[in-house]
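step: validate -> pass
step: tokenize input -> pass
step: predict -> running
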Amino acid sequence: MSLADGQDMARKNGFEFYFDWESCRTEEGYYRIDGSVAYCVKRGLVFADYADMLWMETPTPDLSVAKEFADGIHAIKPHVFLSYNLSPSFNWDAQKMTEDDMENFIPNLASMGYCW
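step: predict -> pass
step: emit ->
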């Protein structure tokens, strides 16, 4: 369908979307966005109807960000499974986490609904 038809269909289904062929893109062809947890929650809620589990990329291990994402998703879709990137590329020591913080990181995630 055409862009105009797609936008009409989206409006009929309760949402708006903006698309611009001329928008600035990365070398890989992706559109640049101003990402935020709120953006990821909105995007996650759309994908929740089609995905087994939701995941949001974070640059550092941060429980407050994980909680904000989990709370935003579970406020609308309480039974959605969440996953968290426990990346080996994280510089865990640079996060000023204590041994207890690191030991309890995964149980804290689990208490927020993260299962993988």
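step: describe -> Strands lie at 53-55, 81-83.
step: cleanup -> pass
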